[in-house]
């Protein structure tokens, strides 16, 4: 068993010869270095990771070995890895010979470089290590934090630069790697990963059962993911299904019954699905995101289990990443919009294909309204509203805003409108084929667009304003404007209610989640308590089981200090960890000077230990 200590060698103790040996030339020349990684892939590049780890649920640690295959340039005598909080016992070559290694200075965002000496001819290193109990990628949940309350749970969240907190590798989206894993966990627990499952029931091992996996396609390291818990499976088709805790799995499978048609619809548009299976893991509510597109196994929040399949656009979004993000990846986090903007566009196309144009139109209008709010918050000329962001010296999470998602989608939608859908679909499908299993920059995307779609058409080039969209602020005047006929009818009911009509008189029977979101989002400030009570009593908004409707209602309640909704606010903030809901609600509380900050601080102090580190980093900057 690994001993848990940090190796005492520091950067100051690294021999001059080792520092001087980092240079080299060879097959990795031209690989772009990533400002959010210490790696020098042009000198020595990780191509494969083999994990053999044991989960210690009492100590909240993973420990064991990571065997790294390397592509080494001629003359290079060191490989530089990313690490943050890892405790390294030793590093050896494939034959077990000791290799010299050293940690660099601590960077508060990036962690530490881990530099390993590699004698000539070395193409494999074995790092014996353990994770810190507070590794930011890993959340260890007590049984009480799970749906069934019987066994503990563990899951990882590597995006953007947190994989380095549990795997010593080159943690950059531009350095794609294949991987395999053997994970040992206590009896009664099951392991799932973003990879092909080779031992569905595990095998006896010291300390419990061992589960093995392999991912033969090279992926960016942020997509290496695992979860451990009391998990059951329900199939939804020949290559799709749902993993969840036993008490949740049937409900999740019913919610995601359209997984197989969704994959088929995506293939019809963008080519064969390249990852084998598309399963969804419904995590406990602490998960900080709506979903994470880990290949073969999307991780999803339980907040999308609405009971009526009205929130499955999130699953369409994660499936779309199987092309935009997983198949073709942003090379650096400056290029994040290449993942999210293209994916958000494809999400709408899938929703249109499965549920009709009006469903997609409603989602697009809601997204554009959210983008308008985000742009207004940043300011018209802010560099934060560029698609291609300058993130030098910053945490890449700072770039995960509606700009990347919804300005990016608006750009793609505008291109489609300009050239026509058939021509655009042909280009986009070919784009995925040309760049399959690679990581590209924004400049690469723009070059492809100009070469293969615009193809010298000066009038189209001028009309698209590519540089204005990508490298400039705000939303260009020529942006496609989405419209929804259903929302126009909702707007009429907003007007009627604001002018005094009772809630009971509104013809809301059959309204979708999106229509309720639009209605609530269109209500003005300055509403009286009696008017809010009219809505709440009539429609049970404070008790809504639909997370999106409840969130929209609670934002109104906070702005108006509507006290009957405060118990629902407390429940939401203390029982789930989805950052999309937490951040705006805490921000809204902090702006209500007479009463909100005190409540925000009280609730945050109670809930903070249950949130993932990704959410905590954001919320610590809000609740002060």
CATH fold field value of the largest domain = Immunoglobulin-like
As a percent range, the share of helical residues equals: 25-40%
**Rg:** 25 Å
Number of strands: 22
Task: Please explain how this structure is put together.
The protein has 624 residues and is an alpha+beta fold. It has 4 domains: 11-228, tricorn interacting facor f3 domain (Immunoglobulin-like); 231-322, Zincin-like; 357-482, Orthogonal Bundle (Neutral Protease, domain 2), CATH 1.10.390.10; 485-620, Peptidase M1, leukotriene A4 hydrolase/aminopeptidase C-terminal domain (Serine Threonine Protein Phosphatase 5, Tetratricopeptide repeat, Alpha Horseshoe), CATH 1.25.40. Strands 1, 2, 4, 7, 10, 12, 13 and 14 form an 8-stranded mixed β-sheet that branches. A hairpin with an 8-residue loop joins strand 5 and strand 6 (112-117). It starts with 15 loop residues before the first helix and ends with a helix. Mean pLDDT is 94; it is low at 1-27.
Which keywords apply here?
alpha+beta, 19 helices, about 625 residues, Zincin-like, Immunoglobulin-like, Neutral Protease, domain 2, globular, 5-stranded mixed beta sheet
């Amino acid at each position: 068993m690994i001993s848990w200590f940090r190796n005492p060698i520091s950067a100051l103790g690294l021999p001059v010869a080792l520092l001087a040996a980092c240079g080299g030339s060879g097959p990795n020349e031209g690989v772009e270095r990533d400002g959010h990684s210490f790696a020098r892939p042009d000198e020595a590049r990780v191509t494969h990771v083999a994990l053999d780890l044991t989960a210690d649920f009492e100590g909240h640690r993973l420990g064991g070995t990571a065997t790294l295959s390397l592509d080494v340039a001629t003359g290079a005598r060191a490989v530089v890895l990313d690490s943050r909080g890892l405790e390294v016992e030793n590093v050896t070559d494939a034959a077990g010979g000791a290799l010299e290694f050293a940690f660099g200075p601590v960077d508060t965002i990036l962690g530490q470089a881990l530099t390993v000496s590699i004698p000539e001819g070395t193409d494999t290193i074995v790092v014996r290590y353990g994770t810190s109990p507070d590794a930011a990628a890993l959340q260890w949940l007590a049984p009480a934090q799970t749906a069934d309350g019987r066994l503990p749970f563990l899951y990882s969240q590597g995006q953007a630069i947190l994989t380095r907190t549990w795997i010593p590798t080159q943690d950059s989206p531009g350095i794609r790697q294949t991987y395999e894993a053997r994970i040992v966990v206590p009896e009664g627990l099951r392991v799932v990963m973003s990879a092909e499952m080779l031992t569905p029931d595990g095998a006896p091992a010291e300390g419990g059962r061992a589960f093995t996996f392999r991912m033969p396609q090279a992926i960016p390291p942020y997509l290496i993911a695992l979860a451990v818990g009391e998990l059951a499976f329900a199939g939804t088709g020949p290559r799709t299904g749902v993993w969840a805790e036993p008490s949740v799995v049937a409900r999740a499978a019913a919610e995601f019954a359209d997984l197989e048609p969704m994959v088929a619809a995506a293939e019809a548009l963008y080519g064969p699905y390249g990852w084998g299976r598309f399963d969804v893991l419904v995590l406990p509510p602490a998960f900080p995101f709506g979903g994470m597109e880990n290949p073969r196994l999307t991780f999803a929040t339980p907040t999308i289990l609405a009971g009526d399949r009205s929130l499955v656009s999130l699953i369409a979004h994660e499936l779309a990443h199987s092309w935009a993000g997983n198949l073709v990846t942003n090379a650096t986090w400056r290029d994040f919009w290449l993942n999210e903007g293209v994916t958000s566009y494809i999400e709408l196309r899938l929703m249109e294909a499965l549920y009709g144009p009006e469903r997609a139109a409603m989602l697009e209008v809601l997204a554009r309204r959210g983008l308008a709010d985000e742009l207004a918050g940043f300011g018209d000329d802010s560099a934060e509203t560029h698609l291609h962001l300058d993130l030098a010296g910053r945490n890449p999470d700072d770039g995960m805003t509606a700009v990347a998602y919804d300005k990016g989608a608006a750009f793609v939608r505008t291109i489609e409108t300009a050239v026509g859908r058939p021509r655009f679909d042909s280009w986009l499908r070919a784009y995925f084929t040309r760049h399959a299993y690679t990581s590209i920059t924004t400049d690469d995307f723009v070059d492809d667009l100009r070469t293969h779609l615009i193809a010298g058409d000066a009038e189209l080039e001028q009309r698209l304003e590519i540089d204005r969209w990508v490298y400039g602020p705000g939303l260009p005047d020529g942006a496609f404007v989405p419209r929804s006929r259903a929302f126009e009818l909702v707007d009429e009911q907003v007007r009627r209610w604001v002018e005094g009509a009772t809630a009971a008189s509104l013809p809301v029977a059959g309204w979708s989640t999106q229509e309720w979101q639009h209605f609530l989002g269109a209500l003005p400030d300055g509403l009286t308590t009696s008017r809010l009570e009219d809505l709440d009593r009539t429609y049970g908004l404070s008790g809504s089981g639909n997370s999106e409707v409840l969130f929209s209602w609670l934002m109104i309640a906070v702005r108006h200090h509507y006290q009957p909704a405060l118990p629902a606010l407390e429940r939401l903030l203390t029982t789930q960890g989805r950052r999309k809901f937490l951040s705006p609600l805490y921000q809204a509380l902090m702006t209500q000077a007479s009463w909100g900050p005190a409540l925000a601080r009280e609730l945050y102090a109670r809930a903070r230990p249950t949130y993932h580190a990704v959410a905590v980093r954001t919320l610590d900057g809000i609740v002060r």
